[in-house]
Design brief:
Elements lengths: L1 H5 L1 H16 L9 H7 L3 H5 L5 H4 L8 H21 L1 H30 L1 H9 L6 H13 L4 H21 L3 H4 L1 H28 L8
Helix pairs in contact: 2-6, 6-7, 6-9, 7-8, 7-9, 7-12, 9-12, 10-12
């Protein structure tokens, strides 16, 4: 009970994701097309103001091993953020990272692709994705920036940023073969940078002794 009181958001999100995974059978198998169509989120859904999908898409994954990987990362990243920053901050960070990322994708990334690479832009515009990864990547950024040792903080932040950028650049062929997966790679990079920028700006405005810029 002590852990539950200390980390309520971790328990809520972890248990909810697990229940949805069991009920939808994505805890052991791939998500079916009907579930993706009903609960997935794409930039096109944002344009159509199907905003309920901002919530529903978080609690589903692509299923199978991806479910368990997402579940483990969700619990670890939320635990770190909630330990360092508290429950309220973690809730705000998670949802702002998730919503902010999809908005930047819909209103910046997709229009840029449509202008420079119309065929790729069309594929990304309608690609539906699910999962809590943008939210927990945002929490990972906050956890990283909470490291007090400046050298370690800088090393981990730049290493994570390089990995996320590398995933986007090295897997650009997924735009045509599996656009939803490339969309996820871009989402992770955006969530990490967006949350880092927000956390650094907020920290500097309050001048605490904790988080600081990488």
């Amino acid at each position: 009970m002590k852990l539950l009181r200390r980390f309520p958001f971790v328990f809520f999100m972890g248990i909810t994701l697990l229940l949805v995974g069991v009920m939808s059978a994505t805890a052991w198998g791939r998500i079916d097309s009907t579930t993706m169509r009903l609960f997935g989120l794409s930039p096109d859904h944002v344009y159509a103001f199907n905003l309920y999908r901002l919530v529903t898409s978080v609690f589903f994954t692509h299923g199978g091993i991806i479910f368990w990987r997402s579940w483990a990362m969700l619990c670890l990243c939320l635990f770190w953020c909630e330990y360092e920053a508290g429950t309220r901050t973690t809730i705000v960070v998670f949802w702002l990272a998730h919503v902010g990322t999809i908005m930047l994708l819909a209103w910046v990334v997709v229009p840029a692709l449509l202008f420079t690479r119309p065929e790729s832009g069309d594929l990304i515009r309608v690609a539906s994705d699910v999962g809590p990864s943008a939210g927990y990547i945002g929490c990972l950024a906050v956890g990283t920036l909470s490291i007090h040792n400046r050298a370690r903080r800088m090393l981990l932040w730049w290493a994570l940023g390089a990995i996320l950028l590398g995933m986007v650049l090295l897997r650009t062929e997924l735009i045509h073969t599996n656009p939803a997966f490339w969309l996820a790679d871009v989402s992770h990079l955006i969530a990490f940078l967006l949350t880092s920028a927000g956390a650094i700006t907020y920290t500097r405005s309050r001048r605490p002794n904790g988080m600081s810029s990488p």
